[in-house]
Design a protein that fits this description.
The protein is 31% helix and 25% strand. By secondary structure, the protein is an alpha/beta fold. It has a single domain, classed as Maf protein.
Length: 197
Amino acid sequence: MSAPPAPPLLLASTSPQRRAILAQLGLAFDVVAPRYEEHDPPDAEPVELVRNHAREKARSVADEAGGRPVLGVDTTVVRGGRVYGKAAGQEDAAEMLAALGGGAHAVVSGLCLLTPAWEELHTETTLVTFRALTARDIAAYVASGEWEGRAGSYAIQGLGATLVERVEGDYLNVVGLPAALLVRLLGERFPGTYGIG
């Protein structure tokens, strides 16, 4: 007799990248938009910021989960102590890319996995090094429009790959979801249920 299918995770996110990663991992999931408004104070500490956003996204839809595990994720980019969130426009995006060019930055994600019985809250950091970027590189990338809605104003899984020299850590964390961390937590909390652990 086969085991019953795993209950789908409830993803508190509208991100197509996060949906694509969960599908890539072979995990069953449903999607709901979080009922939470993000505010990023300019002096926010990055790790606490993403942890808080991830937790509040997950909690905001927990009542709709019917006991299923809820997943909330938030990601930001940090260099030199400054948080680079989503650009307000083309000029802002160009300034971000210029600041990130020719050096390393951290992509920091908060991940919250919760059920009515428990809550797991963790962070994952991946280091990304950009090659030196010319004004022409930046203008061409900004013109592509790919920067819109992206922390740090780039998408590593798209044209943004042309900006990157090196990645140290979980590549999928840069795309939008710390997959290795999620797989580990599911294996610990639900051994065998999601085909993991």
